[in-house]
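Quick note —
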Amino acid sequence: MISDELWQQLAELLPGVPWGRKLHGKRDRAVFEVMAQLAVNGGHWFEVPPGGAGPSGLLCWRRYLAWREAGAWPELWRTLHAGLLATGHGIAPRVPGHAVADMAPASFWAN
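Predicted structure written out below.
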């Protein structure tokens, strides 16, 4: 769901870490794949099964919180949302307690 082009845009927006590197390897791309699935289909962070082929919902939630705390999340969300729209995917309706309600900034729901 996350194209190479969209991933390049997202990776450029990821905040650095204290020792000056960016953490945008395969793991972060997999995190964004889960976030994209949740954004399109709805669901809760903790409905993502632990283990298996992809990252857990807990890891995705923690990355989301870290990126939000770093101030990068609004732009990451706008880029992810625009990229999903460009590929014909909409965003799931806002459901309290579900991941998409957390991920989308409040201003997103104002329209």
